[in-house]
Fold these 3 entries.
Entry 1:
Amino acid sequence: MAIDSVYTELITEHSRDKRNRRRVEGATCSHRGVNPSCGDELTLELRVENGIIEDAAFTGAGCAISQASASMMSDLLRGKSVEEAGRLCEKFIGMIKGSVTDEAELEELDEAAALRGVSKMPARVKCAVLPWHTYLAAIET
Amino acid sequence: MKNIAVKNIADNFPALRQTVNGHTLVYLDSAATSMRPESVLRAVDNFYRRDGANPHRGMYDMAQRATDAYDGARVTAARFVGADAEETVFVRNASEGLNLIALCYAPLVLGRGDNIVLPITEHHSNLVPWQILARRHGAELRYMYVDPRTGVLPDSELDAKIDGRTKIVAFTHVSNVLGTRLPVEKFVAAAKAVGAITVLDCAQSVPHFGVDLHKLGVDFAAFSGHKMYAPMGIGVMYGRRELLEAMPPFLYGGDMIEDVREQDTDFLPPPSKFEAGTQNAGGAVGLAAAVEYITSVGWEAIEGNERKLMKKLTEGLSSLKNVSLVGNSGADVGRYGVASFNVAGVHPHDAATILNDYGVAVRAGKHCAHPLLARLDAEFGACCRASLGIYSTEADVDRLLETLPLVRRRMNLGD
C-alpha cells in the first residue's frame, strides 16, 4: 500500500529531525510557502554566497510529509549552485506528479527520492511539493 | 416511514455501502457534508426525468409541474425551520446566504465607528464577509472569545463586546469544530437591547435538532442543504420580511423582475427578488425530500441516537492513551455531532491519512475556522474531527476508537 512506502522510519525520523528546523545565520534569502487548504506553512531560509547555497533550513509547522520533505530538501540543496538546486526541485516535483519515474534519474535526489510513494497519494501531493515550490519561488524573487 | 428503526437508517444511504482500502467505509465527516438517502436521490432524478422544465416561465403542463415542485420545495423548507415561504430565499449554500446578507443588508446600517460582533467560533463563511464589510465601511470587527479549554463562551463576553455602536451580531448555532451550541437566545436579547440585527448560521444545527427561526427571533439565517442529506448547491437564506423588502437585490436577471423598461426596472417582492436566473430547481426538490426524510425518522430518534453516540465518542476518545480532545476539557455541555481531537505527536493530516487506510473518513486541519484554531490548545494548530450523521452507528464509533491506537505505531512513534 502506498502509505507504507511513505510513513517509513527514514521519513518519519526526518519529519521530527531538528537539524534543519532552524533559522539560517546570515540568511540572504527567505520565503514563506503555504498550503491554504490544509494549513501547512514553512519559511525557507537560504544563505547564498557566489551562487552557491552555503546553508538551507526551514521553520514552520505541518504534517510529517511536508516536514520530512523540507528536511530532505535542506540536506540536498546545501552546497549546490542555485541553478543546480532549481533543476533538482523540478525533478522532485516531477517525481511526485508522476512524470519522472526512472530509478536511475531519481538517484540524484538522494534521500528525497524516498518520498516517491506520495505520487500514489493524490490528497498529499501538495504537502510533499510545498518546500520545493517554496525554493523555486524564493529564487525567483 | 414513521417506524424506521435507527439501526437500519444507514441502509437508506447508498454511498455508505462501499469498501475503502479493503475495509467497509466508516463515514465520520457529516459536518463537512452528509450523504444522501435513496429518497432524495430519487426525488432529484424524478424531477429531471419528468418535470425538468423551467419553473415560473412556461404555459404548458410540464412547466407547471416544475413550478409546483420548486414552489412546493420552498414551502417545505420554510416550514422545516419555522419560517414563512416569503421569507425563504433559495441560495447555493450557507456561504452564499451569508454573503447575500452581508453585501445587501449590512451597507444599509453600517457606518464609520460602528461595530460588528461575532463569536470566535465562526466558520470562515460567517467571518470573512463581515471582515470585508467592516473594512469597507470603517467599522470595527469584534470577537467574543470562548474558553480555549472548554470551548464555552462566557456571558461576560457579550456584555463586554456588544454596545450602543453594535449594528450586527452574527453567530453560528453549533460550532463546526467544538460541537457546542452557542447561546442564540442571549445573543438575540443583547442585540435587541441595542437595536442591532442578528444573523444566524444554522448550517451545523439544522441536521441535528429542530430549529424554529421565528421562535429564536433572529433577523437573518442561512443553511446549506448538503449538510442535511440534500444535494450540494442548494441552501436557504432567511430574512424577516421587512428587512428583505428594504434590501436591494443581490444579482439581477431573469425571473426576479416585475417590469423592465429601457432605463429602469421594477423588481418582484421577496423571495423572488433575490433569485435571478434559472434556479437549482432539482436541488430544491432534493432539499424538500431531505426534509421529508428527516421528518419521517423524527427528531426524537435522531437526537436520541446522536446523544448516545456522542457520549460513546467523547468518552472513548478521552480514555485513549495519547489521544486528546480539543476544546472539550471537563465542561459538561451538550455537543452536537462533532468531536475534535488529536493524536499526540502526529499531525492531523497524517492521522487522517492513516485512518483512511483502515476505511475511516474523518476531517483534518483547521476546519475553515482559522481564527478559532489559533486560540485553541491544539498541537500543530490543527485537529482531526469526527462528526456524526443520522446514519451513524455504534459500530462506526467503535471502528474509529479501535483504529486510533494504530496511528502512532504507523508513524513509528510506539504506542
Entry 2:
Amino acid sequence: MISTEAVKYSLRNLKQRKARSFFTLLSIFMGITTIFIFISFGLGLYAYIGELSGSSSADKVLIMSKGSGLAGLDTAFGLTKDEVKAVENVPGVFEATGSYFKAAEVEYRDEQIYTLIGSYDPKVPLVMEIFGIQQSEGRMLKPGDEKHILVGYNYQVKDKIFPDALDVNSKINVNDVDFKVVGFLEEIGNPQDDAQVFVTNDFMEEMYDENLSYNWVVAKVDLKNIDEVKEKIEKTLRKERDLEEGKEDFFVQTFDEMIEGYSSALDIVIGFVVLIALISVLVSAVNTANTMITSVIERIKEIGVIKSIGAKNKTILGIFLFESSFLGFVAGVIGVLLGWGLSALGGAILNNVGYGFLQPSFSPWLFVGCIAFATITGAISGVFPAYKASKINPVDALRYE
Amino acid sequence: MKKEDKHKSEVINLNAVKKYYYMGDNVVKAVDGINLRVKKGDFIAVMGPSGSGKSTVMNLIGNLDVPTHGDIYLGGENTSYFSESDLAELRGKRVGFIFQQFNLIPNLTVKENVMLPMDFQGVSKQEREEIARELLSKVGLGDRIDFYPNQLSGGQQQRVAIARSLANDPDVILADEPTGNLDTKTGEKVISFLKALNKEGKTVIIVTHDLYVAKHAKVIYWLKDGKVEKKTRKRK
C-alpha cells in the first residue's frame, strides 16, 4: 500500500519521537512478554500431562480421600484390607491394591531429612504402573523384600538431599529401621515426590503394628465398562463404610478423569493469567491509539502538504496504519525475545530447585502467534487515528500552524 | 488557431466558480463568481489584498478545494464529478505546488522530498532517483541532495520546493506567495527560476499581494471581495 519514501517518512517519524515510541513499545511488549511466558509454561505443563495420559493407564481407577490430593496425606482417611477385598470382588475389577503412607525421618551418615515413606505390593504394582514410574538404577521392590528400600531419584544426586550421593546398596535409616537401598526411581520432577522412599506393603505392616489403612487404592478394571464398574465400586464402598450417597469421604476416579481434571484446572489457571495479560495488551492498545492521535495532530500541516503533492486519502491511511503496526511488530519481537529469555531462565531455576516437570515449551507457533498478535493490536490501535488523518481537509491542514 | 486547438491548449478553466462558507445564518463569499482561463505557457499572477479570496482561488485551481458552485476544468476535464482519489491523482500529476513556507517534509532528505510526489504516482525507484537528481541540479542544489531541509537556507529550501513541484512534470506550477518568506535578492532568484520554467513552456500561476512579483507575469488578475476586479495584460 505504501512505498519507499512513505516508509522512510514513517520510520523517521517514529525515530524522531524516540521517547514516545519507546514508552508505547514498552506498554505493548510487557503484555506480550507476560502472555508468552505463561503460555510457554502452560504448553510445557500440557505436554507433561499429555505424557502422563499417554501411559497405558486408561483401565485404572483410583480411590482416595475426598480431602487430599495425590500424596494421600490425609491420615483421617483410609481403606481397610477388607474394603479393598470388597472392591476386588466387584464384577469387572481384575485386581486392586493399596498404598500406605507415613511421615518418615530418613538418616544417612548423621544427616536427617523428613519426607514420606510409602509402600506398594510388588506382586500387584499398580500404584507404580499407573504413572509409568520405573527404576532409574538398581531394581524395583520384589515380594518378600525386607529392610530393602526403593528411594526417589534425588537421593543419587550429590547435595540434593544429602551432602553425599547414595548408591545401590547404601545403608540408610528410616524411622529407626536400617535399610539397604535396592534401587532409585526415575525423576518425577518435583522435590517432594523425588525425595520419597518406598517399601513393600508387608514390611510397612511389620514396621507399624497399629491399625494401618491404605491412603489410596488403585484398581485395574474392565476398560469396556469402566464407568459402570466405577459406579459399582462407589456403591460397594458406601455400603462397606455405611455412608449415604453424596456424603462419601472418598472418591473414585478413573485415570482419564484425573488427567482431565488436571488439564481443566490448568486451563482455568492459564486462561485466567492470559486473560489478565490480554487486558494489559488492550490497555496498551488504547495507549498506542493515543500516541497515534497525538502524532496525527502534530503532523496536520505535513498531512496537508503530502496531500497537496498527490497523496490520496488511502495513502495517508496506509502511512499511519504502517506506523502503528510497525510499533506493534517491534513490540512483539521485543516481547517475545524477552519472554523467551525469561521463560528459559525461569525453567532453568525451577529445574535447579527440583521442579523438573514445570518447564516452558517453545512452539514456533507461540513466537509467530505473539508477534502477529502484537502487530495486529498495533494495526487496530492505528485504525481510528489513521482514518482521522486520512480525512483531514488539505486546505485547513495547510493553514494549520 | 482553430477553436478545437484553442480548447485543447486550455490548461485551466474556472467557469462561474463560487466558494461560499455557511456559518450559521451568515454566508461568507470567499469566491463569488470567477471566470479564469489559463492557456498552456501562460504566466499569470493573481493579485489582491488579504481577504480578497486569492488563496481560495489558488486552492480551487490546485484541486485542493472544491467549489460550491460552478465548474473547474483541468486539462479539459470537469473535476466536479471526480472522486477524492482521482482529484489527488490529478493534482499530483498536473499541478506542482510551491508554498510561502516551503513546506518540505523535515524528516526526509532533499532528494527524498523531491522523490515523494513521484512515489505517490507509482514511478519506479530508479526513475525517481534519476529525476530527483536532475531536477535538483537544475535548481543548483546537486551537491545538497542528502541534506535535510533544516540544513538549508530559506532560498535553498524554496528551490527544493520548486524541484519538488516539477517532479511529476506537471502542466501547471502553482506558487502561493513564493517569495513571501525570502529577502528581496533571494526572492528575485526564485522568480527568475519560475520565469525560466515558463520559458521552457510550463504554465505558471503566482498568487501574491506583492506587485513587484506580479509584474513579472504576462497577465494579472486583480481580485477584490471574491471577484475579478480587472485583468491587465503586459505589453510585449
Entry 3:
Amino acid sequence: MELLLVILIGVLYATGIFMLLRRSMVKLLIGLILLGNGANLLIFLLGRITKGAPPVIDSAAKFFTDVYADPIPQALILTAIVISFGLQAFAIVLLKRVYVLINSDDLDDLNTPEEEDI
Amino acid sequence: MLIAVLAGLFVSVLLIPLGRLFKGRLAVLISLLPTSLFAYFASFIPTIANGEAISFHYPWVPSLGVDFHFRLDGLSLLFSLLITGIGSLVFLYASSYLKGHRYLDRFYAYLSLFMASMLGLVLADNVLLLFIFWELTSISSFFLIGFNNEDANSRKSSLTALAVTGGGGFLLMAGLILMGHLSGTYAIQEMLNASSFLKAHPWYPAILALIFAGAFTKSAQFPFHFWLPGAMKAPTPISAYLHSATMVKAGVYLLARLYPILGGTEYWTYPLIVVGGITMFYGAFHSIFRTDLKSILAYSTISALGILVFLIGIGTEQALLAAAVFILVHALYKASLFLTTGVLDHETGTREITQLGGLRKVLLPLAIAGLLAALSSAGLPFTFGFIGKDQIYEATLHTEGIMPIVLTSLAVITNILLLYAGLLVGLKPFAGKLPERYQAVHLPHWLMWTPPLLLALMGIAFGAFPALIDASLLNPAATAMINETFDSPLKLWHGFNLVLLLSGITLALGALLYLMRKPSSKSMASIERFNYLAPQYIFGKLARAVRRFAARYTRTLHNGFLRVYLFRIIMFAVLLLGFRLFTGGPIQWIPAHLSPISVYEVAVLGILIAAIFLTVNTSSRLTAVVATSVIGYCICLLFVFYSAPDLAMTQFTIDTLTVVLFVLVLFRLPPFLNLANRRDRIRDWLLASSFGAIIALITIQAMNQPFDDAVSKFYGENAYVLAKGKNVVNVILVDFRGIDTMFEVVVLSIAAIGVVSLLKLKLKASEKE
Amino acid sequence: MKSTILKTASIYLLPILLLFSIFILLRGHYFPGGGFVGGLIAAIAFVLHSFTHGTEATLKLLRIHPSALIPVGLALAAISMFAPMLNGQPVMTGLWFDQPVPVIGLIGSALFFDIGVYVVVIGVVLTILFTIAQYSG
C-alpha cells in the first residue's frame, strides 16, 4: 500500500507543478491546492502509516500499550490543513481583485517588466 | 557600563516619537547625553592612570561566543573621552548651527546612534561585538553623510562611503572570524595569549591582509581614501565629528587594539609603513592644491590618518606613544578647524579660500580659535602640536638601518605641507584686508564660537603643561598598545638636539611656503588633470560596470513572468536532486513494514487519480471545483483508513468550506483559458512529471531509513501523565506545542484581516472610478 | 438554493450542528475532536444558514459581527497561555482543577486554550466567507 501512496504523492506533485506553470490564475490556485495535498500526504506517509490504531490512549490506560499511529505528523498536518484554508481564501480574493483591476485571467497581462524600473 | 554604551541607542530611538519636542530651543538639552557620558568616563581617569583596566561582562549569545564584554583600558578611555568630549561640543554647536532645520530631531537621532556605536566599538572586548559596532558606525555615518538627502551629490557621497567602508567591513569580519577560530576565543584579552601562535600560523598573512583591508577602508588610507573628501558633503558639525575624533579613527583604533596580538612582525610593519607613508604624503600634497576649506581639511585629515597608521607600523615604544599623542593633538586642532570653517560657511556663505580674508575684524573670538588651532597643527613651541611633532620625529629617528633618513624626511615633508594647510584654514581667512561684502558679518550665537575656541585653548593648555594629561591619559593609552607598562613623560623641551632642529626646519619652511604661495583656482585645475589616475575614478567606473551588469542580469533573469521563475526554480531543483539521486547509488525498496492492500483502498486511490486528471484536463470551472473537492474527500477517506480521525474530520470540514469559497468567488471569474501552445504544454508536463518522479523516489529513499520514534514515544508516554489528555494529537496541539498553535491562530487572523482589507480596498477603488 | 425543504431544515440544523460542534470541542482532549474541528463545524452551521436565508439574516442572527470573535478568541487563548505566569510558572504550563466534570473530564488551562482556538476559527472562517459574500456581488 505504501508504494501506491508514493505513486499518488508523485502524481499530486507533478500535477500541482504543472498547474502552477499555467498562465491562468485559477489554474494556479488549483495547482496550489494539489501541491498542498501532496505535501500533507508526504508528511503523513513519512510518519509511517498504521491501520486501526488512532493515537488516542485507551480509556483504562495511562499510556499506549499497543501499536499506535504516530501523532506528530497528524498534528503537523492538522495545522497545515487549517492554514491552507487561510492561504486559499487570501489567494482567491487576491486573484479576484487582480481580475477586477486588469480584467483578465491571464497572468502575463499582470506584469510586463517596466523598463524604467530597471 | 552597558547603559553608558547603549544610552545613545535609547536616545536615538526615543527621538523618533519625541523628536518634535527637541526641534526648537530644547535641542540643547540633548547635549546632556554626551556631556554626562563624558563625565562618567572622566571619573575613571584615576583608576586607569594607576594601570588598571575595568571589565564588564554581560552574556548575550553565549553559545556563539558573542557577549557584551566591555573593557576600559587606557586606549579605550582616550577614545571614549574624545568621542564623548568632542561629541558634547558638536551636539551643542549643532543645536545652533542647524537651528530650525526641518530634520533636527533626525540629525540628533543619527548622531546619538553614531556616538553609541563608536563607544561600543572602542569599549568592546570581543571581536564579534567590536565588529557589530564597527558596522553600526558605517551605517550611522551613512545617514549622517547623506543628511542633506535632497542633494544628489550628498547621496552619492554617502553611498560611496558606505560601499567602501562596508566592503572593508566585510573583509574585516572574515579576518576577525579567522582570528577567533584559530585562537579558539573571540575575547580580545584571551587572544593575547594566542599571540605567538597566531603569528606563527600559516594563515597569519591572510588574517593581516583582511584586517588591514577593514582598517584601511575605514581610516581612508590610500587607495581607499577617496570616500573621505566626498563625505564633506555632510553638514560641517558632522564632518568635524566624523573626521577629527571618531569614524576615521576607528581603523586606527583597530590597528592599535590588535597591535599587541598581531603586531611587531615584518608582515605587520612594512605594509603599514608603506601605506601609511604614501597616504600621509599623498593627503598632504593634495591638500595644498585645494581652495575649498573643507577639502583642504579633508586631505589634511587623510594625511594625519596616514601618519597614525605609519606610526603604528613602526611600532616602537616612541612610535606608539607618538601615535597616542598625535591622536589627541589631531582630534583637538582638527575639530577646532572644522568648527571654525563651519562658522565661516554659516556666516559668509562661502568656503572658498580665495574669497575669504580679514574676518578677524568681525569674528575675533573665532579668529583666535583658528589661529591657535593652526599654530597647534603647525607645531609651534608651547602648543600641543609641538609635542606631537616632536614625538613623531623621535619615533622615525629611532628606527633601524637606512629607515631613519627615509622615514624622517618623509615625515618632515608631510609636516611642512600639513603646516601650510593648517595655516591656510586657520589663518588665511582672518588675515589681510576685510572685503567689503563681509562688512556686515557678525558673530553668531555663542554656542557656535565657544566650542572651537575651547578646543583650541585645550590644545595650547596641554602643550604648555603636558603634565595635565601625560601620566593620566597618554601613557595608559600607549601602555595598552604595547601591553607592558612603560613610563616616558612628555617633555616640552628636549634640549638642542636633532629633533628640535627638524622642528625648526619644518616651521621655517612651512611658514615660508605660506608666505610665498597664494592659493588659486588655477592650482586646483592643474591637479585635476591627473584625475583619471585617481582611485575614485577607477572605483566609479567599477560601480557603473556593476550597475550595468545588474541591469542586464535583471532583464534576463527577472522578466516578471511568474511561471518562468517557477520553471527555472523547479528545473534547478530537479537537476540537483536528480544528480544526488543518480550518484547516491541504486534505489531499492526495502519493505521494512508494508501494509496490505485492500480493495476499497485501491478503489479510493483509483477515484483519486481519476479526479486529479479530471481537474487538470477539464476546461470547465465547475468540473474543476467538483473534482478538487473529490480529491479532498478521498484524502479524507485515506486519513480514516490510516488511523487519523482528527485529520479526517478537519479535512472534511475544510474541504466543504473550500467548496463554498470557490462557489462564492470563482463563478464570477472568466472561464478557463488555455493560453499555452502544445509545445509549451509538453515541456511543462515533462518538467512536472520529472519533479513528481523525483519526489516519489526521494520518498522511497526516506522510507528506507529506519524510523526514529523517540519524540512520538515521548508524547505517547507523557500525554496523559503530564498533560492529562488522551487524544495525543489534541494534546500536542493545545499543550506540548501550544505556542505553535497560538501563532497559527494568529496567522489565521491575519489572513482574515488580509481578505477583509483586500475586499474593502477594492470597493474604495471602484468608488473612485 | 432557496428550496423550502433546505430552508426549513437549516433552521433546525443550525442549533443541532452548533451543539455538535461544542460536543466535539469539549471531548477533544480525550477523543478525536478539538478546537479546530469544532470551530470549523460551527462555521459550517452558520454558512449553511446563510446559504438558505442570506448573509444578512445570518449576521442579524449572530448579533455581533464574526470579526469581533477573532480578538476574543485570541485573548482567551493568550490568557490561558500566560495565566501560569501569575503563579510563577513558565508560559503554557498546564493548570488543572482537581475535580473532574462529567462528559468533559478534567478542566484545565488547555481546555480554555482550545476554546480560544474554537472561537478564533469560527471568527476567521465566517469573516472571510461573509465578507466575500457581501463584497464580491
